[in-house]
Design a protein that fits this description.
The structure is a homodimer. Chain A is mainly alpha-helical. Chain A is built from 23 helices and 6 strands. Chain A is elongated.
């Protein structure tokens, strides 16, 4: 499907229509496109024409397109439209989209927006804005379908027909008792396949999977993955149903959480901002802290080398093998730590597996270490001008370093998890620094034995 | 929700019931649990009791639990059950689960399974097994709801009630013409909210988003994310509808694809296997190739240092700064490359942005480089015994190295993408090696100017 190319052509055509003032054609064509694509088009439109273009959209399309827009375009538009238009957009947005959008706006805009919202909605929005950023509460929507225990299938269907159009999903419906406590879940599929007089409580699933408003979004995502859910109910402390989370929002959470892990592993302060829209100062700030920490901790390596200065002086050629040794150790270690961090993140590896993992990594380390050392020794004997003792020192050091790096690479993230520190933060950036010191100590001690004595 | 602890308690209780031969209680309790949890329980049951336990499950539960099992448990069970039981499991499995499962089994089991499958199903399974591993075809299921163009809402509902129970989803239905060409999509929500006599073709969305059987799963996942879909139709070359993909399978794809990217960035050969279940030999094999390549390419660093041996001999202390310099460069470079690789993967950065990105990285590099160099110079002047010229050499080298590393870190992955090489493979492991050489050259040239001449 040449989706991208077709879209680019369409956007170009629209830009031409805009330039040629053919607004009625443009209006029609735009309103037939998917809101996600219209939102993308807005990024290519010159700023001063965005407002005009936005007003060409039908009311329904306007709100939905708005929810797909990047936050700087949203800001741009809210800044320039009238109060009435703000009200109609916010009223059309589903609650979770409205909260998402408000979370990104500067304070002066938020007050403009809230001023133009009905009392009821404002109260709910304020409550939502109080949930912690990565909690189930901040992800949920309050537009869900709920039945009472004693409802029949016919009544349920009538209710869906009447109110369903405003709900985020009508495919998972929830059953509550008279104090609004969640007692069951029933899918539209089950409802449709049941007779009109059946009681909802007879066909509902009563062992419902649910989360609480303050649960972390990572846990929420894990439940979706495990049970193949399309929606998940959210309850308060008294198990009263307060909202639902739908799978489309979870897809974003999973991506956000992995991006965060990847960034931490590469010594970056994680950030939700889009790269191209983040200023140079902020980008630098997110990187400089770890670079400083790691540079300072690199002092250990320097101290180790200085400590063995006499060894180096007697054979300067040894210095030329420092990079190869450090890099091989670093790579071997980060291979192990990456697999362990990822394995823990997706739930394949638990803390109870630690001895199994260490034992496995040591054996993997022995195989990798011996192979690398052998290849390296052969390579040096053929191509290098160094003595056999130097070659032996380098190769043995590689072997021992690889084994130790693998062991450190698995102990470090699991230890971090045990201490309730984020494994990705702890093990990702630090592994190289730690392995550096270890490999240098190994190297110079072998050098003392083989090179200095011979 | 203390899901995990509750589950562990339940599993322990079940194991006790099993030991005490209280099978009828166990049977009842197990059959009331979610299949995903029953499947997890099987992992904790001793191998020789698994078959017996499996036979306690009702027919429906058996097939669904089976689809959630790890492939080694599946293999175990298929190996020991009768041909009739194999047939009933495979018949109950939905097509995409059946194909997934067969993809993991050894050849002798596949023939046992296919022998016990009806002709029709075998034909379809074989066709599915022919789709490339990461294609839309391999993800899709053929259990979907389709209507003819001239169907009415009443007829559609009747059809859903009659056949819906066997379909993967009934919430997205598809409309085809008489040659089975996909002409539209209609959601169950729309059907329910429309009058009985309405023609399906009047309420359907006719600009359907679809993929072809051979499209890559990454593209498929991107469409789900962009349009917030819960299902996506798959068509053949003639745009005839052949299957659908549902969002629960996409959640797995997203996780698989990111794990793959993370592994590549850490110099691992990507693998779908669970860590704890992968043998030591296979783990070593997935790592050793990159370790060898990177070790051999480390020869450049050695050669550079050897080339400047005279500089080193005149001031051995310089060697002690090699690790700090290489690591800082490596970290700075991989920070940049990670952001760019991830940005391209989630579609935030395109090739057209290359000059923007380079310009941004250079400025970020200048800020980071100057800060690091200044901190380092101060630190060395206070704590180090080296001469001011050595300290100056190290600090200037850090500054220049950081800037160059940032630039290399963004050019490398984008260049790889341009050349249609996977950015994660190209830039992840190689960045350190390339930055090493660059930083050493910078370092020794500054040393020549400042240290040798003074």
């Amino acid at each position: 499907m040449n989706d991208e190319i077709e879209k680019e052509q369409e956007f170009e055509e629209w830009l031409n229509l805009l330039d040629e003032n053919k607004f009625s054609v443009l209006k029609q064509e735009m309103n037939e496109e998917y809101p996600a694509n219209i939102a993308e088009f807005f990024e290519e439109v010159p700023k001063k024409k965005r407002l005009f273009l936005f007003r060409l959209l039908t009311k329904d399309n306007a709100a939905e397109t708005f929810s797909f827009m990047a936050s700087d375009v949203q800001e741009d538009i809210v800044n320039s439209i009238t109060d009435n238009e703000v009200r109609s957009i916010v009223d059309e947005l589903s609650m979770d989209d409205a909260v998402d959008f408000l979370g990104e706006m500067p304070a002066n805009l938020i007050s403009k927006i809230l001023k133009n919202t009905s009392d009821d909605k404002r109260k709910i929005i304020n409550q939502f804005l109080n949930y912690p950023e990565d909690s189930a509460g901040s992800l949920m929507t309050i537009e869900f379908v709920q039945f009472h225990e004693n409802s029949t299938v016919a009544k349920a269907m009538e209710q869906i027909r009447k109110t369903g159009v405003d709900k985020e999903t009508i495919y998972s419906c929830y059953v509550v008792d008279k104090s609004r406590v969640l007692v069951g879940m029933v899918s539209l599929r089950t409802i449709i396949l049941s007779g009109d007089d059946t009681l909802v409580s007879d066909i509902m699933e009563d062992d419902v999977i649910y989360v609480q408003t303050l649960d972390d979004q990572e846990e929420v995502a894990a439940l979706f993955k495990k049970y193949n859910l399309i929606a998940l109910p959210v309850v308060d402390n008294e198990k009263r149903l307060v909202g639902i989370i739908t799978v489309d929002d979870i897809v974003d959470v999973i991506e956000e959480e992995t991006t965060e892990d990847i960034e931490k592993m590469s010594a970056l302060v994680p950030s939700d901002d889009e790269y191209l829209k983040t200023g140079v100062g902020k980008l630098a700030k997110n990187r400089i802290i770890w670079l400083l920490v790691l540079m300072i901790s690199g002092t250990f390596s320097s101290a180790i080398i200085s400590g063995y200065q006499s060894v180096l002086e007697s054979s300067v050629i040894l210095a030329s093998f420092i990079p190869i040794l450090m890099d091989t150790g670093g790579n071997a270690g980060s291979q192990a730590s990456t697999l362990i961090i990822r394995g823990m993140a997706v739930g394949e590896i638990g803390l109870k597996d630690i001895f199994l993992v260490i034992w496995k990594e040591i054996r993997v380390g022995v195989i990798c270490g011996i192979t690398l050392a052998a290849v390296n020794f052969l390579r040096l004997m053929i191509f290098s001008h160094a003595t056999t003792f130097v070659n032996l020192t380098v190769s043995l050091s590689i072997c021992v370093t690889v084994i130790l790096s693998k062991a450190i690479g698995c102990v470090l993230p699991m230890g971090a998890k045990k201490l309730k520190i984020d494994p990705a933060i702890m093990a990702g950036p630090l592994i190289t620094t730690i392995v550096d010191s270890v490999s240098l100590i190994v190297f110079f001690n072998f050098a003392k034995v083989f090179v200095l004595r011979n």
